[in-house]
Amino acid sequence: MLGPPETAHREAVVLIGHPTSGSRTSAVAQRVANRLAGSSPAPPLVVELADHRASVHAVDDDLMRSVQDVVRNTAVLVVATPVYKGGPTGLLKAFLDGLEPTALESTVAVPVVLSASSAHGALADLQLRIVLQAVGALVPVPSFVLEEHHLDDLPQYVDAWHQRFGPAVDAVAIGGTTAARHAQR
């Protein structure tokens, strides 16, 4: 659970939209984030929205504002959801709906979708990408979409995805961080 507001810039944050903490979706997202972080001295911060369920819909909630601040102040945001009825979870959607349209304008978002079938995974992925772009996120690479029956082979899937797309995530994140610093001057 997230404590007091953290306003310092973080290299990577993992935002988990599963309605239960410690889910398989969380494990997949953390694996992707850790691989993206590589040799970074600070491990990615994990935010389980399930731990903040009561605050997601609350207006002017200090805890939710602190969670939003953490999400806004990261270079790379790994956003994970299981597929629920063909789309991302309502919990994740409600959280993202609470962000202003430019909240993630200097953030590289990496969607992670865990699904039972490829058709549902593709649909949820498309919906999640659209919502992330609506709050200003840069989504420069294909999402990490994994079907549940491949969970036993997760390390190989993450490594293959990272080998192909990790350098692009790094390049865009470095460019976005540099541009954001110049804009603040």
Protein model, in words:
The relative contact order is 0.16. Strand 3, helix 4 and strand 4 form a beta-alpha-beta unit. With 185 residues, this protein is of the alpha/beta class. Strands 2-1-3-4-5 form a five-stranded parallel β-sheet, with helices on both faces. Mean pLDDT is 88; it is low at 1-7 and 177-185. It has helices at residues 24-37, 53-56, 62-72, 90-97, 118-134, 154-184, and strands at residues 10-16, 45-48, 74-82, 108-115, 144-147. The N and C termini lie far apart (34 Å). The longest helix has 31 residues, at 154-184.
Q: What is the radius of gyration computed over CA atoms, rounded to a whole number of angstroms?
A: 15 Å
Mean pLDDT: 88
Gap between N and C termini: 34 Å
* Tally of contiguous helical segments: 6
Helix-strand pattern, N to C?
EHEHHEHEHEH
For the largest beta-sheet, the strand count, sense and barrel status come to: 5 strands, parallel
Question: Keywords for this structure?
Answer:
185 residues; alpha/beta; 5-stranded parallel sheet; 6 helices; globular; disordered C terminus
